[in-house]
Write a structure and sequence with these properties.
There is one protein chain. The chain has about 350 residues and is α/β, with parallel strands linked by helices. It has 2 domains: about 270 residues, Glycosidases (TIM Barrel, Alpha-Beta Barrel), CATH 3.20.20; about 55 residues, no CATH class. It contains 13 helices and 8 strands. Strand 7, helix 8 and strand 8 form a beta-alpha-beta unit. It starts with a strand and ends in an 11-residue tail after the last helix.
Length: about 350
């Protein structure tokens, strides 16, 4: 299973950009899409509030579009801090929300406890009880569980409180084996996935991890100042026997995100023969056409490494003129980036 999870902070994609990205990546082995933008309050802070009918109908149209392409459609529900008060009233609110989501005829449902405070005594057991309730109500939907501590990265402990002792081991031991578990790797934004690391996680979770891959995502106050375009690295040794699935968290730019997404498919196909520089050139040519792809290749260091804050006024103006000369959605996304339209200054929770 290789697919997208639109799980970033900041400005969500439009419905038309979702469709165009999903259909483009279908040709490169991407066979699922999970709708889970953090800005959708009906999925996170106000999860217990029903979707307005027009929003529900728009999601249903997207689900049909995916399924007509042979792409499994999913949704990511983040019942914010539900585990702090999972009483009878909370159970009823959850059941009501799931009844509405059932109308979408989901193939996948991710229950996401990421980026929430975790300093709660019965964190694992209460989250497991929530997952069990979801599983019983939506028994025909493939479930994926994202724990609060979804990586070895100590940043999570600093941001959300020290992880409870034996948290992941308890989940691995007690969670229904049919339910998958998201994992971002040794870091929140992992630079590499090794067999040794994934085998260790498999032993803890008692199942192969379902990768939540935070590349090329570029949300947040720091990362939104960079375009993540380069071909993937540290992933050419991945194999199906190590994973339950692989979900890519894309960048804020839906057209440009197709470039690294296509290179990931190439890494799987080519294995040890994968060359990330050549893969970028090939993928960018497919997405943008050769002239625009050549410009991106020449400016890759400025866009991905230098970033908005350190671009000189001369470089900034030159880039604006250069990409303003193209009538292509990828060039318009570069221009919007240069103009600061993707900057995110909000809280990451």
């Amino acid at each position: 299973m290789l697919g997208l999870i639109e799980g970033f902070y900041g400005r969500p994609w439009t419905m038309s950009s979702r469709r165009s990205t999903i259909v483009s990546l279908r040709a490169y082995d991407y066979d699922f899409y999970v709708y889970a933008p953090k800005a959708d309050t009906y999925l996170r802070r106000k999860w217990h509030t029903p979707y307005p009918q027009k929003d529900l109908e728009a999601l249903l149209e997207l689900a049909r579009y995916c399924q007509n392409l042979g792409v499994r459609f999913g949704l990511g529900l983040s019942p914010y801090e539900l585990f702090r008060h999972f009483d009878q009233n909370a159970r009823a609110e959850l059941a009501s929300k799931l009844d509405q989501l059932r109308e979408l005829k989901l193939d996948l449902l991710a229950i996401l406890f990421d980026d929430m405070p975790g300093n709660f005594f019965q964190l694992a057991s209460t989250q497991l009880a929530i997952i069990d309730a979801v599983s019983k109500q939506l028994s025909d939907v493939k479930l994926i569980f994202c724990p609060t501590y979804y990586s070895d990265d100590p940043i999570l402990d600093r941001a959300f409180g020290h992880r409870p002792d034996d948290y992941l081991n308890t989940i691995g031991r007690m969670l229904d084996p049919a339910i998958a578990v998201f994992w971002t790797g040794p870091e929140i934004c992992s630079r590499e996935y090794t067999r040794g690391h994934l085998e260790k996680v498999t032993d803890i979770l008692k199942r192969r991890p379902f990768l939540w891959d935070n590349y090329p995502v570029n949300d947040g106050p720091r990362m939104s100042r960079y375009l993540h375009l380069r071909g993937v690295t540290g992933r050419s040794t991945l194999a199906e026997d190590l994973l339950e699935g692989h979900a890519v968290n894309p960048s804020l730019q839906p057209t440009l995100t197709q470039i690294p997404a296509i290179t990931l498919s190439m890494a799987y196909r080519q294995g040890s023969h994968y060359d990330y520089g050549r893969a970028f050139q090939e993928a960018s040519g497919v997405v943008c056409g050769p002239p625009l792809a050549q410009c991106l290749w020449e400016d890759l260091g400025l866009l991905q490494e230098t970033g908005l804050d350190r671009l000189s006024s001369v470089d900034l103006e030159r880039l604006r003129v250069r990409y303003g000369g193209f009538d292509h959605e990828a060039a318009r996304e570069v221009l919007a980036f240069l103009n600061g339209e993707y900057l995110f200054e909000g809280e990451m929770n």
